Amino acid sequence: MRVLGIDPGLANLGLGVVDGDIRRAICLHEECVVTPSSQEMGQRLLTIHQRLSALLDEFQPDAIALEDQILRRQADVAFKVGQAYGVVQLTCGQRGLPVYGYGPMQVKKALVGTGRADKEQVMFMVKANLGLRTLSNNHAADALALALTHLASAPLTSRSALQVALQAAESGRTGRRSRRASPKRRADQA
């Protein structure tokens, strides 16, 4: 499975592409898209859209892993991050790509085994899982951590989807049975 991890941000948008499964993942690409605050807002959002579109064309991921917890303490920061988040959702939506959201605690638990892990522990596990000696910057590293989290969660997601399908099939069978009148119901209808 090929996953594009995205750490959303307006000034710094982290991108990381991994391929394989959680036991044998490789890093195909990592970068940080920087948009200077001196640029007009529309231009900054367009830069994010264009770079993300080019990356989607180049790597054709199966899924997108996006950090979905936007800062709540600083309204102005949350608003700007939210704009970048919206551009990411729109760009992926235009292509019909599934987007999976993960919060920081989920990433820590998936990679380190505890939601209380610190950033250094997460970065160590990203490098260890991908066989990397260094990471280009924190934003790209966070994006790779999100992609790895999806790889770790993908079997669970698939199992959940399978369970839903089986339950739907079962309820369909149950529904057909219930349409036939039971002996008691037939007696009542007569």
CA radius of gyration is: 22 Å
CATH architecture type:
2-Layer Sandwich
The domain tally reads 1
Q: Please indicate the percent range of residues in DSSP E strands (runs of 2 or more).
A: 15-25%
Query: What is the CATH superfamily label?
Result: Ribonuclease H-like superfamily/Ribonuclease H
Major β-sheet, in short? 5 strands, mixed
Return the structural class.
alpha/beta
At the fold tier of CATH, the topology name is Nucleotidyltransferase, domain 5
**What's the N-to-C terminus distance?**
58 Å
Briefly, what CATH class?
A: Alpha Beta
Number of helices: 6
Whole-number mean pLDDT: 85
N-to-C order of helices and strands: EEEHEHEHHHH
Strand arrangement within the widest β-sheet reads 3-2-1-4-5
| Percent of residues in helices | 55-70%
Shape: globular
Name the poorly predicted regions: 158-165, 174-190
Number of strands: 5
Task: Please tag this protein with its features.
globular; Nucleotidyltransferase, domain 5; 190 residues; magnesium; alpha/beta; disordered C terminus; 6 helices
Structure description:
This is Crossover junction endodeoxyribonuclease RuvC. Residues 168-190 are annotated as: Disordered. InterPro entries: RNaseH-like_sf, RNaseH_sf, X-over_junc_endoDNase_RuvC. The protein has 190 residues and is α/β, with parallel strands linked by helices. It has helices spanning 41-59, 75-94, 104-112, 119-130, 138-179, 183-189; strands at 2-7, 12-19, 26-34, 63-67, 99-102. It has one domain (2-171): Ribonuclease H-like superfamily/Ribonuclease H (Nucleotidyltransferase, domain 5), CATH 3.30.420. The protein is 57% helix and 17% strand. It has a 5-stranded mixed β-sheet. β1 and β2 (12-19) form a beta hairpin. Residues 158-165 and 174-190 have low confidence and may be disordered.
